[in-house]
């Protein structure tokens, strides 16, 4: 049954605290030992979405996967609370403040809604990126903050997007067979992986190295622009 009285989150935090106190297995958990579960639960959620479990008939499936991811967040926050550092409430407050601050195209500085909102994604991106740049003036380039451990395809996509949003030239693109759909693109990528395997090459490592060369090229060009 849906919890409409506002007690679900306080009860969740209470249950997790009690588990930490009275369950030997839960009590032994650490930030480090929880990492594998966090990654696993995130992948299970991604799989549920990819499988189309977002409609009315599959709401329970999606709710369950979201709950598993939330449990990981609550556990990590609880470990910190036990050390007297911060609580889940502090995490929620930090997130709220960040969302208001970063999305100034929606919110005023005091958190109230603006009277009008941008009508294009380009306007939103410019506003969002400007706020991030002001918050993190020490960043050394558009790629800082992208996790290096991301799968190579995801790393490549994020690097290209960061370069585009920074106004950097994305580099030369070699001719390739056109793909007009995700299915065709998937077949092309699979063919590339198949070819790499036949030649004893590691496609993950190859793409990761290519992304590294791309990032270095963009940073070099930006550096030259700063000197001009």
UniProtKB/TrEMBL annotation:
It holds the Pfam family MazG. Residues 30-107 form the NTP pyrophosphohydrolase MazG-like domain. It comes from the Bacteria. This is Nucleotide pyrophosphohydrolase.
């Amino acid at each position: 049954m849906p919890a409409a009285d506002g007690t679900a989150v306080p009860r969740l935090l209470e249950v997790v605290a009690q588990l930490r106190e009275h369950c030997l297995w839960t009590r032994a958990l650490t930030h480090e030992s929880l990492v594998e579960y966090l990654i696993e639960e995130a992948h299970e959620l991604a799989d549920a979405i990819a499988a189309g479990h977002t409609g009315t008939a599959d709401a329970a499936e999606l709710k369950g996967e979201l709950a598993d991811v939330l449990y990981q967040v609550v556990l990590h926050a609880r470990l910190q609370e036990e050390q007297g550092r911060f609580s889940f409430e502090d995490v929620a407050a930090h997130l709220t403040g960040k969302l208001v601050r970063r999305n100034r195209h929606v919110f005023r500085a005091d958190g109230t809604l603006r009277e009008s909102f941008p009508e294009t994604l380009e306007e939103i991106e410019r506003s969002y990126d400007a706020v991030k740049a002001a918050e993190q003036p020490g960043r050394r380039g558009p790629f800082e903050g992208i996790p290096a451990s991301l799968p190579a395809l995801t790393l490549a996509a994020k690097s290209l997007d960061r370069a585009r949003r920074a106004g950097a030239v994305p580099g030369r693109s070699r001719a390739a067979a056109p793909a007009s759909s995700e299915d065709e693109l998937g077949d092309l990528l699979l063919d590339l992986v198949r070819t790499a395997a036949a030649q004893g090459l590691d496609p993950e490592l190859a793409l990761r190295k290519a992304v590294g060369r791309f990032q270095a090229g963009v940073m070099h060009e930006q550096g030259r622009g700063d000197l001009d």
